[in-house]
Specification:
alpha+beta; Aminopeptidase; 5 helices; 8 strands; transferase; GNAT family N-acetyltransferase; Acyl_CoA_acyltransferase; GNAT_dom
Length: 170
């Protein structure tokens, strides 16, 4: 078992955060966490439903991964690494959500770091990401992690107004 398959544990204050791989028991949390933030800022779109209603078929069975942040055992954060069928990008970092109950506690950073580490372990050279600039804390996090802006990639999301990439130096 390598580092990426082991549970990561971090103490935040008096609470413990564990970053764990997808299990079917977290399927509803995957959808609920994402619907919560998307519905707050935007409108759910067809592509959202495809991923959120069938994470196994849409993400996992195609070579992707989903990680959860368990905050004292409760799934309060999630992030996916979606295998891309693209000449330029190996994976997309997507479907990242952190419950408002624990925002500001570095959970997004821990999740994104786990996803990036997994991509590195798989030999990825570039990770793609789509977002919207009104999500300032998320955008700042992505830049902190080394993502840079790119232009003019096709997207299925009307809400997407920024596309960024992370070049991985293996």
């Amino acid at each position: 078992m390598n580092l990426f398959e082991q549970t990561r544990k971090v103490a935040i204050g008096r609470k413990h955060v564990e970053i764990v791989a997808y299990q079917p028991k977290y399927r509803e949390a995957f959808k609920a966490l994402n619907v919560e933030w998307i519905s707050k800022y935007f409108t759910m779109e067809e592509s959202d439903y495809k991923a959120l209603d069938n994470p196994e078929g849409y993400i996992l069975d195609k070579g992707g991964y989903i990680f959860f942040a368990l905050y004292d055992g409760e799934p309060l954060g999630v992030c996916a690494l979606i295998k891309m069928d693209d000449r330029e990008y190996d994976f997309e970092l997507a479907k990242m959500a952190v419950s408002p109950k624990v925002q500001g506690k570095s959970i997004g950073f821990l999740l994104a770091s786990a996803v990036i580490d997994k991509a590195k372990s798989l030999g990825a050279k570039k990770i793609y990401l789509e977002s919207n600039t009104i999500l300032k804390p998320a955008i700042n996090l992505y830049y902190k992690l080394g993502f840079q802006k790119v232009e003019d990639k096709p997207t299925p999301y009307t809400r997407c107004n920024i596309q960024i990439e992370l070049v991985i130096n293996n």
